[in-house]
Amino acid sequence: MSKAYADGNLKYGVIGAGTHGENHLKSVSVANNAQLVAIADLNVPRARAMAAKYGAREVFEDYKQLLALDEIDAVSVVLPDHLHRQVCEDAFAAGKHVLVEKPMATSVADAEAILAAQQASGKTLMVNWSNRWMHSFAQTKAALDAGDLGDPLYCYARLNNTLFVPTQMLSWSAQTQLPFWLICHRYDIARWYFKSEAKRVNAVCRSVKLKSMGIDTPDFYQATVEFENGCVGNFESCWIMPESMPSVVDSKFELICTDGYVNIDAALPDFVLATHEKQHNRGILGGDVMGEPVGFVNQAVKHFINSVLLGHEPLITGHDGLMITKALVAMVESAEKGQPVDL
Q: Residue 241: which CATH number?
């Protein structure tokens, strides 16, 4: 353990107290080796409510005031996709370790700038593609590494949301696109399995439903990615599924290998709880057990905390974030140009 953390307690701040921000707050608040110190959010009443709920001492409207606290060792940056760069750069300049929500950035230039800031600071950077901690994906990775499946050849990955997400959950859906919001989760998994980088990307998208509602972002994306080692991945995402769907998330992942096959329906809940008013699908993001959070988001945050305290490189690094960003940007470029993009 680093001498700087001899008490075994990482002093923590969370920048962004929205839905995903609360997942980070909850995870940090119950960690036995971290202390939640401060929250920053433009919605101060929301931040104060979260501070009261999870035990943060300080609340700020300006994140720079949070970064100015010398006692804070690390921060989670849980902001809209397109707002990560400046906050991450400022956090590293202030000497903080950073866990940034996926995607790392929505442009290659921003991802490169974040990585450069991290390297100059010598601090830890982890990008929170937390689906790696879902037991089905983690067990598949273990089987691949053990040689049980042979060599991976091809994957099909679908990850969809209902219309609730771009129209109600996100106020900034027009400032992002599906490669950054959804496809990135499955592309990270495929790259992790294939151990290779994208060579060529061919993508298409269409804008009909959301455009008719005044939201200027595509309804769906479909992308075929050829990897340098010959593997191929087909990725598709939409976020205009009917809100009557049993879950806000629809997910399917298939992996073809030389000696095996994997089929993961990651949207299936562990169980369904229904009342006369509505049905509650449980187990997708996790939940609480005996008052403590469980699930892959909590596991990812714990991994980051442990990586910082032990001085270990996290499972998902800034370099990973940059390489994934390059592929995601290529998807957008390919769809806009109507032709394949070589990386």
A: 3.30.360.10
